[in-house]
Amino acid sequence: MNERLPREAEEVQGIEGSEVPEGSAPEASIPEVVMPELHIRPRMRVLSDDQVRRIHEASLELMEKTGIQVNHEGAREILHSHGCTVDGARVHIPPDLVERALGTVAQEVALYDRFGEKTVDLKEDQTWYGPTLDAYDFLDPSDGVRRSFTMEDCRTTAALADALPNFTWTMTIGVASDAPPATADRLAARQALTACQKPLLYCCDSLRSAKDIHAMAVAVVGSEERLTEKPLICVFNSPISPLVFETPLMDRVLFAAEQGLPQVCYSGPQAGATSPATLVGTVVQGSVESLFGLLMSQLVRPGAPFIYGAFATIMDMRTSVFSYGAPEMNIMASAMAQMSQYYNIPFLGMSGCSDAKLPDAQAAVEATFSCLCSALSGANLVHDNGWLDHATLISPEYMVLVNEVIEMVYGYMRGIKVDDERLALDLIDRIGPGGNFLMEDHTMRYFKEIWYSKLFDRSNMNQWRARGKPEFHERLHEVTETFMRHEPAPLPDEVIREIDRMAEHWG
Questions:
Q1: Residue 158 and residue 77 share a domain
Q2: Which of 26-35, 216-225, 346-355, 431-440 bottoms out in mean pLDDT, i.e. has the lowest?
Q3: Among residues 102, 124, 142, which one ends one of the domains?
Q4: Are 293 and 403 contained in the same domain?
Q5: Confidence of residue 503 (pLDDT cuts 50, 70, 90)
Q6: pLDDT higher than threshold 80 for residue 24
Q7: How many Å is the Cα radius of gyration of the chain?
Q8: Selection from 46, 100, 48 nearest residue 377 by Cα
Q9: Cα separations (Å) of 172 from 8, 162, 181, 200, 247?
Q10: Tens of pLDDT along 309-320?
Q11: Mean pLDDT throughout 43-69?
Q12: Within this chain, do residues 295 and 164 fall inside the same structural domain, yes or no?
């Protein structure tokens, strides 16, 4: 096996730095000469290098010994032709085949908006946040009523994702209860593509749906070649835990690979239910379920873009829910982020989600913890921001709240820049003991580097009273209303007509 782990660094109580200038070291003393700027990005590791390697070796052993249930006959034939042992629907995969696939997969993946501008660059430890998919209910900010998600809500939430500056890509967000089940996935994707200019990570029910959504994306960007070169869409595929790839899923995996589209195979192992109760056992199983999708993509098209990951969380034994706020969810996501860095491929993580039923204090705490963990672990594409009630409810107000949390996290992840100008030794010496820095040019240059929230209140008590004592939920509602007035850039009329013609043949 080729050595991976190109970004190893010294660990200090689980936190490490990256982007340290060449030749520097944590223990080095400050030199007498002018010091170059140091900018260390905060990092967190939850696994040692030996543990990472052991998880990888365990994953290879599981794929060979236990194997994967592959219900797709054509996929089994491909695997058999490459040396896999096929026993009915069970396929046993030799480790060297997985290693070869890891050697051909694209190490970086970029996503583009409808204008061909790169807005998401999945490489190294850069983190990009987006919303979710498949919510069944909608918490209407206009009246606070929870109701079934509709097709109009698909458009509303797509436009909101377009407006939120820290959501750099989008998803289809909800399942429209008022749409025909046979075409609901394509109708939701249509709303996302027309009401939001950002890259779309989507899921669908069938190969036919995948082809229709691909055709819509081609119409938006202008050609198949342009879509492959600058992908506007990324395919979300979900294996069944434990270790099952159904035929419709495999159809979509193979189609995405053939088209050269980025895709993710993202299972949902639930510790104690559909995966082992131990965290590491769940991580291994989730890793295998994703690596198998990677393997298939590379057998079909070596070099095809692929995003690794699994939504690994726990089964709450008191309620039986698949928890979206458990700390174990975040540490397993951090572990899988490290595995993706070992493999040198992008990782799909999760954050900004909660088991709370409202955008309340519990939701805020769980969102903040998960968003920060995702950034510190170097997760790349991070979804589920704005999801409540363990994956059943979308709330525009919660999306806005999480957007603000993400901005706070980005401020933290910028780290501390260290150079002579920022050290300000001459300035401190000139002002001296007992002085103040308020009117200094230096203050005017640098105070704007400080983060100022649009949502959180830093006023003193008298200022707050003078404004009528607005409570947090009132400020959140007001800011949400402002974002929801956003009008997304329209697609050209001829593109809308082309998509309308396509829709006439869905069914």
A1: no
A2: 26-35
A3: 102
A4: yes
A5: very high
A6: no
A7: 24
A8: 46
A9: 36, 12, 15, 8, 23
A10: 999 999 989 988
A11: 98
A12: yes
Domain that holds residue 441: 418-449
CB 46 within 8 A of CB 335: yes
- What is the distance between the alpha carbons of residues 364 and 453, in angstroms, rounded to a whole number? 15
The pLDDT score that the predictor gives to residue 416 is: 92
Asked if 295 and 343 sit in the same domain, the reply is yes
Domain of 362: which CATH number? 3.20.20.480
Q: What is the mean pLDDT of residues 207-214?
A: 97
Q: What's the pLDDT at 313? A: 95
Looking at the domain assignment, is residue 192 inside a domain?
yes
Residue-averaged pLDDT of the chain: 92
Q: What is the Cα–Cα distance from 278 to 283, expressed in whole angstroms?
A: 9
pTM: predicted TM-score of the whole model, two decimal places = 0.90
229 and 371 share one domain: yes
Condensed to tens digits (0 to 9), the pLDDT of residues 150-161 reads 999 999 999 999
Are residues 385 and 341 part of one domain?
A: yes
Q: Which helix (H) or strand (E) holds 121?
A: strand 118-122
Q: Is the pLDDT of residue 32 over 50?
A: no
Average pLDDT over every residue of 333-360: 97
CA distance 325 to 341: 24
- Which ranges of 164-206 would DSSP assign to H, the alpha helix? 184-195
3-state DSSP assignment of residue 463: helix
Contact 7, 393 (CB under 8 A): no
What burial class does residue 462 get, using C-beta atoms within 10 Å of its C-beta: 0-12 exposed, 13-18 middle, 19+ buried? exposed
Structural domain includes residue 41: no
The string of DSSP letters for 94-159 reads: -HHHHHHHHHHS-S-EEEE-TTS-EEEEE-TT--EE---S-B-EEE-TTT--EEE--HHHHHHHHH
Alpha-carbon dihedral angle through residues 30, 32, 35, 40, given to the nearest 10 degrees = -10
Tell me what pLDDT residue 52 has.
Answer: 98
Domains identified in the chain, total number: 3
Same domain assignment for residues 432 and 333: no
34 domain-assigned: no
Q: What phi and psi values does residue 387 have, to the nearest 5 degrees?
A: -95, 135
Per-residue pLDDT at 30: 35
CB 395 within 8 A of CB 438: no
Q: How many CB atoms lie within 10 A of CB 396?
A: 26
Residues 270 and 239 reside in one and the same domain: yes
pLDDT value at position 320?
A: 85
Q: In terms of C-beta density within 10 A (0-12 exposed, 13-18 middle, 19 or more buried), how is residue 459 classed?
A: exposed
Q: For 82, phi and psi rounded to 5 degrees?
A: -105, 20
CB distance 355 to 362 below 8 Å: yes
